[in-house]
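Hey, resending since the last one bounced:
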Amino acid sequence: MPSQLEQLKTLSTVVADTGDIDAINRFRPEDATTNPSLILKAVTSGKYDQVVQTTLENVRNNSLTMDMAVEEACDRLIVAMGSLILQNIPGRVSTEVTARLSFDTDASIDKARKLTELYETGGITRDRILIKLAATWEGIRAAEQLEKEGINCNLTLIFSQTQAIACAEAGVFLISPFVGRILDWYRKANPGTSYLPASEPGVKSVQNIYRYFREHLYPTIVMGASFRNKGEILALAGCDRLTISPELMAELSASHDRVDAVLSPSGKTSERPEPMSEARFRWLLNEDAMATEKLAEGIRNFEADQRKLEKLIREKL
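The structure tokens again:
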């Protein structure tokens, strides 16, 4: 029997949750997704020094202040890494708008357009990229506008059905609901409680979102993310897409146990509700302590790694 990873690929689109080209070539996913943490890890690995050096040389040739040069270099570097990844996958790469813009719709739109233009200047068409934005109200509104311009988006840091529904109503191409980080919160809130993968709150959250989208005929793609163990992944087999770390892809590759589909459209359909207002979105998110805390924490953590990347670039410039 084929490995669990190969079986999974027949049920869900497998996406590499890494910027490591070696891992991508080893496991041959359809797509890849990155974030500031993964780009920082790749850049500091020493494997991509030439990419970094070339990027910095291009920036040095421009008459920019140091702050402007650092920002320009970071933009060019994440696009250069994304372009390199695209040489090794058949599908799309996700590239993230810096987390510090998560509450600024206009600035998020401008940055997304800039990243898209950099890709297009390098000969990469927009149908091969996804712009990642945090699923704040402002991020969702930015994605709504970008989708109208033909710039597809990946809304990340999804911890609640409220966020997911707002994204679907905005016509977002893809969302990334997080599994493992939800589990982290529940473990901290309920010390000593054990959860089987199939019954974990993060797994249940993604299952509920998937079923809601299919029942209400939203075309938005659901991509489970942030996995802590392979059991969570197998409990979501059949989900539209699953973004998986190299470590967990290795575990799936090493096993040849049977993989069965857990998720599939039921065929049941329901009329869509009235679109969610900003006030209702903010109230429902406020009422969900886990989602509120994990969204804020995720934005802070991505921004912390963005600052580390900027510090590294500043020193090299």
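The mean pLDDT is 95.

Sorry for the duplicate.
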